[in-house]
Write a structure and sequence with these properties.
single chain; 41% helix; alpha/beta; Rossmann fold
């Protein structure tokens, strides 16, 4: 495994759920040492079993925490809090996504951290930002709420129907990526100046910033609405969206006017040059006004071809932006994604070799890669405390007996197996 862009960077990950872990997972993929600060939880004795993989709760932790270390410590115990404070004094980054009162209750707010370590970079990710909603910082916001309040739901769904929520935790992952990006810039600033800083990231603001059409138009035009729900076809250019083909669905974007435009080339593919100058279809606005007719014409042509692959080949040769609508299973089996390295094998002691989604960045000089399995609870207590605080195994064992530290049975098995193999 090659060097990472963040080799040597130490990140303390005090996060939960999706948004925070996704942010720090990106940094782990880049080579940072990410230490996940966890609290003792009763139902985490073995996070990874063959039975857990098919369940909806079995895989997210695995996906979000690959390559991280787990330190399980009781922060309500003064000794546990002192351990964390000691680690913070030599850390580069502290990432958290709790409501503000949680970090304050442990003395982990930015004024307290910067007093311990002026160079620390702290990144807080919440739904509304640190001031909260309507000046209530404790108001809870999750991914679907952020989608609703950022306008993302408003522009998603059938054109004359109800707003839809997008799946896949889009608000969490976009905010997590925004957090990792911001931390990278803060590290660059600290390299030049020696000064740490605090980063406040709102999930709603991250989604709002992602909208490159509707919200910018409304803002520039002082509230005049522009972008509304599209359904299967976009209303910005036309046609632009999903079409029913012979076997499945194909997304096509063919805007413009005249024979050299994408629309003109599509008409040539369909052997319908008459459509190019037809006043009903002459430009994007005209085609939008006759949208059902345009979709019917294109879909009829797509379904007349031998198969979807034939349709995609014709469209590609005509330089028309197009691609199949793929399920996750089709993506997993598709040769394009295999060739691109979209998946990576990771060895899990409990599961054997499994495939995970690899990071998308391809660097020429460094490597972004999932650097190991996600940890069992408390798996790296001995490693982290010996390496960073020079604690002896006897000291760590005593803290475990006292309940300051916790190591699950599965974590203990991994640790002992590692020591035997090492």
């Amino acid at each position: 495994m090659g060097p990472g862009s963040l080799d040597g960077v130490k990140v303390l990950d005090f996060t939960t759920a999706f948004v925070g872990p996704f942010c720090s997972r990106i940094m782990a993929d880049m080579g940072a040492e990410v230490i996940k600060i966890e609290r003792p939880v009763a139902d985490q004795e073995n996070r990874f079993t063959p039975e857990s993989l098919p369940t909806r709760n079995g895989v997210p932790f695995l996906h979000l925490n690959g390559g991280k270390k787990s330190l399980c410590v009781d922060l309500k115990d003064p000794q546990g809090l002192e351990i964390l404070h000691s680690l913070l004094k030599e850390a580069d980054v502290f990432v958290e996504n709790y409501t503000p009162h949680v970090v304050r209750s442990y003395g982990l707010d930015y004024p307290s951290l910067s007093a311990l370590h002026p160079g620390i970079i702290m990144c807080s990710m919440t739904g509304y930002g640190q001031d909260g909603f309507a000046h209530n910082p404790e108001h809870v916001c999750t991914d679907p709420i952020a989608q609703a309040m950022s306008g993302l739901n408003w522009i998603t769904g059938e054109r004359d129907g109800e707003p839809y929520t997008i799946g896949g935790g889009i608000g969490d992952t976009i905010t997590g990526m925004a957090g990792a990006l911001a931390v990278g810039y803060a590290l660059f600033h600290r390299q030049r100046t020696g000064v740490g800083q605090y980063i406040d990231i709102s999930m709603i603001a991250s989604l709002l910033f992602m909208d490159s059409l509707g919200m910018p138009h409304v803002a520039a035009n002082r509230g005049v609405p522009f972008h509304y729900r599209n359904g299967k076809q976009n209303t910005y250019t036309f046609p632009m969206g999903v079409m029913k083909a012979r076997e499945g669905y194909i997304s096509i974007q063919a805007p413009g006017q005249g024979p050299e435009s994408a629309w003109g080339r599509l008409c040539a593919c369909m052997d319908r040059p008459d459509l190019i100058e037809d006043h009903r279809y002459v430009d994007d606005d005209a085609r939008l006004a006759h949208g059902d007719e345009v979709v019917a014409i294109v879909e009829s042509w797509l379904q007349s071809l031998p198969d979807d692959e034939a349709a995609l080949l014709v469209l590609a040769e005509a330089r028309i932006s197009s691609g199949p609508v793929l399920s996750q299973t089709q993506i997993f089996e598709h040769p394009h994604f295999r060739a691109q390295g979209a998946f990576q094998e990771v060895e899990y002691p409990e599961l054997g070799t499994i495939e995970v989604v690899a990071p998308p960045y391809k660097f020429s000089e460094t490597q972004a890669w999932v650097r190991g399995p996600a940890p069992q609870l408390g798996e790296h207590n001995y490693d982290v405390l010996a390496t960073h605080l020079s604690m002896s195994p006897q000291e760590i064992q005593e803290l475990t007996v006292q309940g300051v530290l916790y190591e699950s049975e599965a974590a203990k098995r991994r640790r002992l197996e590692d020591s035997l193999s090492g």
